[in-house]
Inverse folding.
């Protein structure tokens, strides 16, 4: 299993440099950033900075979307960062959540997401591309043939199908092994049906991690199921709460959800957390002692998860990274 960390754009630049160096030393191989340009500072400048302070760490947005930027601009930026880092750049892509909803806009259609991934990859590779209302073909004369890995964030059956058809990896914002297996199976099956070789397909579980008593851990991370609830609410709106297309264990927890404050996206002081129970937090995050973390991560690995990506949004970032480096990662590699 690989390990990653995720920053918000609010992290102080000097602190980010220290943390990413610590993470690389501790055995982490990915550093991801939220891509939500209104709520937090633009993340790609931070990635470029941190590339200069690491040697092996890979970087990317977790996640970007097709609606925020012109596609050629996005592709140029991604290709430039891949070149600057010596080939250490991936992208995570979703339909769009906080980056677009905070402006009152709607997430992209899945067909648009698929086209975005394929055409941005083609541009970065150096191919000639047309898209949207751009009348003339576009090609980067400076492209080097870089194959840009794309991870697709998905929960619903149609999004999981898109992830299987066009992604090199799947992003699941949850650390509940049973749900991760169910969702992974859908994406892999869709990829095989599309004729793809899924042997090297990657699966990321992106979730908070915290050490301490369970009460302390739950209090520090209960913001996370509330954030995920936005995506699940979209599924319920489309398919209904009683659908057999998505596990009941994923949809049932939002029955008492009253709303969501995007100005407090991914924060523990979001006012809409009262529907989150202890069992939900325990399932969605990785909590407790180092041994508890190792036990749950082994369960995730057994159901096909290839990367655990820690959302560093709870405080005690250095302690979490160091404890993983000292006790968790060696136990997973041993």
């Amino acid at each position: 299993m690989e390990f990653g960390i995720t920053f918000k754009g609010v992290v102080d630049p000097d602190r980010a440099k220290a943390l990413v160096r610590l993470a690389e030393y501790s055995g982490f191989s990915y550093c991801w950033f939220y891509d939500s340009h209104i709520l937090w500072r633009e993340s790609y400048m931070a990635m470029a900075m941190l590339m200069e302070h690491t040697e092996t760490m890979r970087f990317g947005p977790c996640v970007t979307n097709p609606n925020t930027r012109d596609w050629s601009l996005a592709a140029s930026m991604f290709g430039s960062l891949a070149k600057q880092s010596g080939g250490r750049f991936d992208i995570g892509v979703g339909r769009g959540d906080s980056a677009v909803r905070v402006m009152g806009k709607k997430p992209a259609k899945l067909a648009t997401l698929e086209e975005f991934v394929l055409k941005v990859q083609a541009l970065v590779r150096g191919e000639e591309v047309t898209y949207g209302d751009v009348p003339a073909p576009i090609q980067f004369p400076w492209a080097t043939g870089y194959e840009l890995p794309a991870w697709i964030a998905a929960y619903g059956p149609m999004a999981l199908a898109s992830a299987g058809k066009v992604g090199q990896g799947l992003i699941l914002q949850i650390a509940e092994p049973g749900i991760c297996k169910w969702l992974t199976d859908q994406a892999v099956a869709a990829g095989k049906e599309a004729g793809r070789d899924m042997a090297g397909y990657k699966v990321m579980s992106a979730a908070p991690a915290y050490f301490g008593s369970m009460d302390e851990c739950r209090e520090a991370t209960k913001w996370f199921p509330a954030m995920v609830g936005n995506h699940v609410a979209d599924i319920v709106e489309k398919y209904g709460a009683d659908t057999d297309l998505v596990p009941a264990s994923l949809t049932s927890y939002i029955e008492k959800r009253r709303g969501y404050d995007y100005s407090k996206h991914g924060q523990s002081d979001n006012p809409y957390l009262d529907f989150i129970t202890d069992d939900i937090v325990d399932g969605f995050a990785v909590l407790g002692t180092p041994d508890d973390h190792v036990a749950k991560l082994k369960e995730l690995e057994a159901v096909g998860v290839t990367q655990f990506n820690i959302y560093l949004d709870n405080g005690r970032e250095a302690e979490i990274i160091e404890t993983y480096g000292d006790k968790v990662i060696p136990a997973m590699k041993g």
